[in-house]
Amino acid sequence: MNTLGKVVLYLGIYALLHFLYEATGIALFKPISGVDESVFEHLKIGFFSYLFASVVEYFLIRRKNIPSNFWTSRMFATLFVPWSIVIIWYLAPALVGKLGLQAELTWALTVTFLSGVIAKQVEKALEEKELSAGFSLSVLVLFAIALVFFFAFTYQKPWIDLFVDPLTLGSH
């Protein structure tokens, strides 16, 4: 699948998962879709959106020559998506400061688009390489850990925020 096609598919799935649980209230959707507007939930949506886009991609191209490292490259790219979102998202506050609502929504769409483009480039590069068993195993282990991370913290958020100094928690 070409880059634009994959990114459009990813964006469509992202939009669906962003509102799926809220729109339906179906508990089955909670671990894969957004349940609030936290950064964590958006990272989770990115992760599962790229994963599901890769599953759709597999079924669209399965009759063609599928590279032997198709799933390793897709799992690595899927792991990469949330961290791309974080790095790109926080570029705006670092350079501009707080954004207004319209600018924030525009930036959010831009960030999501760019995370898809970057992930697709990562997977294409990995597809062209012979990957070691150690790398493939590492990706599989990290992917399994990410699933636990996203599922567990859907139901109980961790005790500390990413940017909160733990030494100041007791003083508030």
State the gist of this model.
This protein is mostly helical and 172 residues long. The protein contains six helices and no strands. The termini are far apart.
Structure overview:
With 172 residues, this protein is mainly alpha-helical. The protein has one domain. Helices cover 70% and strands 0% of the residues. The chain has 6 helices and no strands. Helix 1 (3-24) packs across helix 2 (39-61) and helix 2 (39-61) packs antiparallel against helix 3 (70-89). The longest helix is centred in the middle third of the chain and has 27 residues, at 101-127.
**Shape estimate:** globular
Q: Can you summarize the main beta sheet?
A: none
* Uncertain segments: none
| N→C terminal distance | 51 Å
Total domain units: 1
Put simply, the count of helices is: 6
| Helical fraction | 55-70%
List the helices and strands and how they pair.
Blueprint: H1 3-24, H2 39-61, H3 70-89, H4 91-95, H5 101-127, H6 133-155
Helix pairs in contact: 1-2, 1-5, 2-3, 3-5, 3-6
Descriptive terms for the model:
70% helix, 172 residues, mainly alpha
